[in-house]
Queue: 4 jobs
Job 1
Amino acid sequence: MNIVLLYGGRSGEHEISLISAAAVVRGLDKAHSAKLISVAKDGKWYLEADSLLEEIRAQPEAALAVHPDPARQLSVVPGGGRDGAFVAGGKAIPCDVAFPVMHGSYSEDGSLQGLLEMAGVPYVGCGILASALGMDKESAKLMWQNAGIPVVPYRCLTLADVNDSRVYDAKIEEAVKALGFPLFVKPCAAGSSDGAGKATNMKELSFALMEAFQWDTKVLIEKAIDAREVECSVTGNSITGSAGTPETLLKAYGPGEIAPKHVFYDYDAKYNDPDGAELKIPANLDEEKSSYIKETALKAYRVLNASGMARVDFFIDRAGGDIYLNEINTIPGFTGISMFPKLCGSEGLDFTALTELLLTQAEERFKAREALRTSR
């Protein structure tokens, strides 16, 4: 099988993609032929040299890099299909399945998925709709609320609200009255806690909102709950799973628990501080709570029509024990300390087997879509 692995990207999670993608390179079955396509921060795509692939496989701690060589700049051809979608230096790069390991904006939000759909190649992970919904935290919450899944109480502000002082002041006043301090502030469509902050008073709230609006045009204000953070991994195809092969059926792994050692599980705790958090697999939960979380993770996944993979995150209120669905990550981290592959591994699905499963699911989903009629 010819695998094209995509990494980098224009988002604030570019550097995390370099680490995640390197882990995937080392995890791929070497029976596959693999090519690396990097996406620079300016959005340009490059075909990387084969020597980089071998270098990463030989060095367990190495991260990938982007090498912006104009001679190796790559083009994507709409309708090109498996044998002609990717072209560099006048030569087509065969691609049986594309494996995007790119987090955040322009990567995980449906943009990349739409491009791959237009190019006509199978790809690992969620489709356009699920990717877009999963990236926009407000939209996902609205979908889950409609399905009866409890989410953390919140309010949403837009850039239009900020530009009208009377509307802005009224919405801030209402949010504080309804939710109370402390509050979490986060961009609606940014990952890895980029732009997120905690506020205990109006001054801190103002600063947190200023920071969040640098990352997105929509911002969430959420009630800060003293909570345990637990996560589930999910694989499978929501739409074709029930009628598909055993590999496409939905499965939840976990849950596991994250015990942050920072004020909250921020970017530094996730990626820069090796002691920023303790991962507990399995989470210390009774069977009833564990089963409920796994079932809710599957339900949340299905509600968004997710496919391939996702990590679904929950909060458990320390005071009352209430469980809230927090968010879904449709291209979760694959780093050495990432919860998604660790949870799968804890239930017997090692890294290479996981990548094989994801490739199989991508092919199954593509075949199901290709079989549909698109004209009379």
Job 2
Amino acid sequence: MNKLFKDFKSELTQNASKEKALIYQRFFKTGKGEYGEGDIFLGITVPEQKKTAKKYADLSMKDLQDLIKSKIHEERQICLQILIIKFKKADSKQQKEIYNFYIKNTKQINNWDLVDLSAYKIVGPYLEDKDKSILYKLAQSSNLWERRISILSTFYYIMQNKPEDTLKIALILKDDKHDLMHKAVGWMLREVGKRCSEELEEQFLKQHYKTMPRTMLRYAIERFPEKKRQFYLAKPR
């Protein structure tokens, strides 16, 4: 273990909190049969993690590979924060390496906070001017987190006023069975309306609101005036 990595691990131990760890384990559903089953927390807050990521942003890709495989949630999360820092500074060759690292390790990006932190900051921008078929493949994965990566990656395109891929992937995912996907898709549809075009969002909703999961619909229409919200909520389902 090199000195930088050793110092990093030592700092995590110093920042750990058993009390916070118990709270996080409940919040992120780590119990038997829950979506985060078995995940281990040290109890390090997000601001502390960000500070640590900046301090240790020079960790090597080999060190980051060890972190992304870790059973400890905060180690995976800080790994992703470091990857984001590296990606922003990287040239095209280095960005490709970071993107490939990310795609290779999608099954380790295995909770909603890890996906939501990173997908639109690495996968989205990397694929902006490239073939996006990987997103459609991930959207049809049996793995919940890969499906969430597919739709959250498109948040980057929404922010560029290019919501086409979001709407296409939302169509693939609109019948997803998992509540976390209902929330993610509804959230992205809401962002399409907020940042790009409410008309485009409503075109999608008018075609699908009768069959969309209720949670997805509620997230999508959250910003609508009350009268319009009630229109969508009151129709027979």
Job 3
Amino acid sequence: MAKNQDTVSVLAFEKKLVPSDAYMYGTQWDDRSLATPLSLMEKSVRGTISNRLKAAIKNDPVKLNAEVEKANLQTVDSCALAPEQDTLKLHFTLKVLGGVQEPSACNNVLFKQSYASAVRDYIGKDGFQELGKRYALNIANARFLWRNRVGAENIEVQVNALNKDTKQSWVFDATQFSTKHFNYDEPKVVELGQRIAQALASEDDFLMLEVNCFVQIGKAQEVYPSEELVLDKGKGKKSKILYAVKEIAAMHSQKVGNALRSIDTWYPEFDDVETSAGPIAIEPYGAVTNLGKAYRTPKDKQDFYTFFDKWARGAELERIEDEHFVMAILVRGGVFGESDK
């Protein structure tokens, strides 16, 4: 526990991986010269009652029949390729920023100095090579497609570095890379990872990437933009609202970013077949909301704050993997101040 005079009540870091929204277009796998923006369609559907029922209803056949006869009317958004199109094109940009050596806000000079020293030591040992490779793999394996990745016959990822003095391009067959581990040393992935690592390790440099992903899923097949969070469902006429920007179906930048930072294979349960969630997104407590579980708890001393409070004040961590995790959180960004009470 930090001493009072060593408390950092104001501490914040800006995110260093900055993706744009991902826009959706329809095209053909064999002829991609024409890609048309995908728009949302509104449907009114008559569903059935399928939720759990009260005991008084489900144990009475007459009441049960009366309940299931009721129409479950819904208005929903959907999105699909045109009848002649068999391929989804997803387009986004990603900016990789340097400057992790400097917090965006810090009210303790001594802490800031010890933190900067710890970062310099990390860059000297690893140079962000491991993190850069993992971010590159999550681009190469098209993890950012989420549900759109399932059932695809072919997936091609085209990556262009747009920096005017160091332009470079890569093409990946995403089906050749698993999303369950990072045990790859494919030369193009390593090369892209080195470019990302170089930007992250710099003090004020950046890397601008353009990503175009082509996914062959079949003619007229449904695609899956991000779903909007409806806070007050009682007042809205739709039960499902999808995301679009200027009438182009899209995925939230937050969802793209979550996929890119799903690199944490260092949490204790990763190798446990029964409880592992595979690579999880970088989060201070290893939170996986759809599973309702935190994989990095303060009780087990595996959370970000346990590691960071020691490491940033000059103490050595037991494993280099723990340093990777800490640095990945700082790349993610956030507000990490301590209570001054």
Job 4
Amino acid sequence: MGVLKRFEQRLEGLVNGTFAKVFKSEVQPVEIAGALQRECDNNATIWNRDRTVVPNDFIVELSTPDYERLSPYSGQLGDELASMVRDYAKQQRYTFMGAIKVHLQKADDLDTGLYRVRSRTLASSESQDPQQAAGGPGAGAPQQRPGGYGYPAQPAGAPPMPSTPPGARPAPRTSGAGAGAGAQQQGQTRRWIEINGSRHQISRPTLVLGRSTDADVRIDDPGVSRRHCEIRVGTPPTVQDLGSTNGIVVDGQHTTRATLRDGSRIVVGSTTIVYRQAEG
């Protein structure tokens, strides 16, 4: 059984009384869990052939409405998410430098249904085995200084990391079901997709949709391939089939590639995706 499926089953066991309100949020806990898995994969650092270190301190930024719905349960939900990260790390043979923590935080620049995950590697201040229930030896591990959120931690002896990198600092990854979405500058075209009532903002040149946790937007539909299709931001924006089993239908036409306009409807499996764009 997969890690995400076990996570969902644990949450189902907790759904009673007021805790059930968690699932009325636009952002679903399983979407955050998938984003945390990707955060580990994207920030894994190989120390040696037996040890790959991943972040252990995570901040999940939420829109004001989503944060207000989820924050009363942040302790319990954070513990479950941390447990999921630990299970995933054990499966992937990742290790940690300290205890796993998942925090919820409000972000005023996010719309309902969008979230942003930031992470860093923090060495434990306690005299304990730095390995936290994940594969690989814990003894003799290199010591690290804490890295800032969005930056990897550095080995001892490395030049100090600037608090503000030269030039513009890249925007942290923002997700709707794990999709990147940063704040849009005023005057730019805003682009997003709508799936089953949830909005997923587009701020990357490409956005991969599929059933895999590696997809930018994960679609839980048995008729959807792991990497089903890709939206490409350009002039004009397009959608491209990625060799999926069942193909794509755009505005009623079976196709492998199509131009998108505001309101275009993309059907993958039994799921309809509406593409939206607006000046703003």
